[in-house]
Amino acid sequence: MTKGLEGVVAVTSEISSIIDGVLTYRGINIDDLADNASFEEVLYLLWHGDLPNRTQLNQLRDQLNRYSDIPEEIVSQMKSYPKTANTMAVLRSVVSALSLYDEQADDISRDANMEKAIKLTAQLPVLITAYNHYRHGRERVKPNPDYSFAQNFLYMLNGEEPTDVAVQAFNKALVLHADHELNASTFSARVTTATLSDMYSAVTSAIGTLKGPLHGGANEQVMAMLEEIGTVDNAETYIKRKLDAKEKIMGFGHRVYKDGDPRARHLQQMSRQLAEQKGDTKWYDLSVKIEQIVEREKGLKPNVDFYSASVYTYLGLPRDLFTPIFAMSRISGWTAHILEQYDNNRLIRPRAEYTGHGNRPYVPLEER
Ligand SMILES: CC(=O)SCCNC(=O)CCNC(=O)[C@H](O)C(C)(C)COP(=O)(O)OP(=O)(O)OC[C@H]1O[C@@H](n2cnc3c(N)ncnc32)[C@H](O)[C@@H]1OP(=O)(O)O
Ligand SMILES: O=C([O-])CC(=O)C(=O)O
């Protein structure tokens, strides 16, 4: 038995690979994609296996625009949710509820699944930004069909045209979070799919799994930690106290990368650039200091969630939207894996090594 299934190969996949610390999507190095690709190109790449040509990309953009509507029933539901609800719980609930209004929800044919993948990807930014407006008592901002995916999210969130710098940084963050081999939430999605359940159920499972602080939820915890520490001078005492208490430092360590997460390097650079452009390097300087201490004390390196916290903060994004934003990007990987699982399916059902009591008789209630 391998605790946490460490190192266990559970599926074959052609979607993304992590080999010797190098991450690729469909064989293309993440460094190349991060520097050059739009999130829409990455969507196409993950779903179809190759980068799109101009016509294919335009078609996908049209489909994303066409499918971004959300049912009025979902709007009323979200308006009735508590204003202080956990945003990942909101997302999990609305994605589950969306299936009730999709006539194709239980159609698991490839065409219907492909359409649902595009629909869910188009709807997630609309849902996240709409709830953010409703909880503040405002009406939502509808997407602008002329905008890119990254541009539209920032536009819907703030109701104003985002700067080019913000759009470029946000697009890169989306590209970096899109897929990551058999991470916990993707595994959840594949386990659900393998029972021949539907795509909404699989994505709902994945959202619930991403929410946890050992996985996608870590980005919000990182920002909470930065805020708690406050200044570079407080970092040493804070981190040492945590480590002495055997507590985890959020945003560090990884099940697969033992020598650094390639995505973290991009996010660090982005954090520095945004900090300098803003003329406020507080969160960047503090993050660098924490990185130095954790590396020195534990030999651990930052993962994707560490510098994304300061990047999102510099972009003015609310802390409790960080993990929904992760989901908004990772939906691309989840749906690609769901499609791949349906294409080559077998029920995923491992065994448990039983470590409980031996055979015992049933003791009647009055004798206990
Ligand atoms: C998108 C993502 O999901 S990226 C990961 C996001 N999660 C986090 O950032 C949460 C903090 N990190 C962690 O909890 C872990 O590093 C995980 C969950 C990412 C990986 O966990 P595992 O592969 O199970 O490693 P495990 O928890 O066994 O750690 C191995 C050792 O390193 C220590 N360690 C690992 N991560 C950390 C950390 N962030 N802070 C302090 N110590 C750590 C463990 O305590 C353990 O030490 P020990 O051998 O003395 O007991
Ligand atoms: O792969 C993992 O275990 C976690 C991770 O980095 C991700 O999902 O991006």
UniProtKB/TrEMBL annotation:
Q: Which GO terms describe its cellular component?
A: cytosol
| This protein's pathway | Carbohydrate metabolism; tricarboxylic acid cycle; isocitrate from oxaloacetate: step 1/2
Q: Which GO terms describe its molecular function?
A: citrate synthase activity
Q: Sorted alphabetically, which SUPFAM superfamilies does this protein's record hold?
A: Citrate synthase
Where's the active site on this chain?
A: H254, D305
- Pfam family, any one: Citrate_synt
* GO biological process, any: tricarboxylic acid cycle
Keyword annotations for this protein, in alphabetical order, are:
Transferase, Tricarboxylic acid cycle
Catalysis performed (reactions): oxaloacetate + acetyl-CoA + H2O = citrate + CoA + H(+)
Family affiliation:
Belongs to the citrate synthase family.
- Please state what the protein is called: Citrate synthase
Q: What is the lineage of its organism?
A: Bacteria, Bacillati, Bacillota, Bacilli, Bacillales
